[in-house]
Amino acid sequence: METSGGDGEVSGKRAKPSSDNAGGGEEDRISALPDDVLVHILLRLLTPEAARTSALSRRWRRVWTLLPELRFLYTQDCRQIRAALEAHEASLRCLFVGIRDAAPDSVAAWLPAAAAARRISGHLVFHNIERGNNAQEEAEERGAFALPCLERATTASLHLGLLGLAVPPAGVFARLTELSLTCVGIHGPGKLGHAVSSPRCPCLRKLTVSDAWGLDNLVIHSDSLQQVKLEDLHGLRQLTIVASALKDLDVTRCFMNNRKQLVASISAPQLVTLVWDDLYDPSFVHLGEMEHLQSLWPFFFLVYGEDSLLHNHACLSLVRRFKTIHSLTLALHYFWEIDDFDYLMEDMTMLPDITFFKLVVSANGHAFGASAFHVLRMCSGIRRLMLSFLAPTNVEVKLPFVYPVCLFISCLIMT
């Protein structure tokens, strides 16, 4: 509310100092501050701590309910979360909930309250830290909670820690632009692919699904998706993506342990970056036209092994699909013991015309010069080279090239 003084100037109305402050002696100048300043102060506290300030005086009783963000850091009492959401009055630009070893009913106690009044207008982050080690057995035993329709949320990141997620069969996530599901078991009655497709997620631009069970068939039709990352989808047999605006696609370890009746069909004519760190065979993986593709990362190549390895066949089959590619990332992997295996680099006879080449080497203590130079001799047109080493190693690189190459060596020590 604003008032006008006699000189015509407009000044904000400030709350009068509370007469029931706890000190009873000195003037309570903090309580005299405007609501927006007090809210800014309380934003520095976790929500349970901010809510306790309501006991200070009548002036503070409802200030915390005006917070635009609520944060619960690994609380043990989910009833506390629901009570806070029901008492809260403002729209939420961020709701963060962290729980340790949550059960489905504990999540169901507060998540519907966050969605019921369309309260979340920004980001929802839920992180459950699990204690179990038998991932799939744990996911099946724990049961599932229903995902409510988040009508106003713009992003949702759910790390469920082996909890099951029941996908709603109806409802529109009208403003959702990003969705991330990690460590989750997918349950019916709805299908995840239908839920993230354009009719129900018209604004979704980025989708990440990682370490998930229960997705044997994933079908996505979207006009808005620009980035899709699918990683460790255990049991996936069929994948269909029709996305006219898709720019980046990452499929990693989704088909490795499930090699029967596999079908993958990708229609993404605007695709720029493709990471297919997985089995590939043109007989069951149909990638469609990719005229705009600039960056490719195929399955890793085993330097030593047995003939007809699926890894190497997948790598070479995908690379041979392209005559020219701006950026290629190729990973060479060595087993710890290689004495009883064949040298397989001779199977690699050609690479596309490349401008930027990233060679990733996991040498595991072995000399890798011969395999590296076997690859580099096929890359006469590169202008930039990056070498990444995924194990500690002493490296000396000499390039006998007669043409200019910008060489950038990046050593990554993986622990």
TrEMBL record:
Q: Which residue numbers delimit the F-box domain?
A: 27-77
User: Gene3D superfamilies in the record, alphabetically?
Assistant: 1.20.1280.50, Ribonuclease Inhibitor (3.80.10.10)
A Pfam short name: LRR_At5g56370
Region: Disordered, residue numbers: 1-29
Indicate the segments annotated as coiled coil, or none if absent.
Answer: none
Name by which UniProt lists this protein? F-box domain-containing protein
Which species is this UniProt entry from? Answer: Digitaria exilis
Q: What is the lineage of its organism?
A: Eukaryota, Viridiplantae, Streptophyta, Embryophyta, Tracheophyta
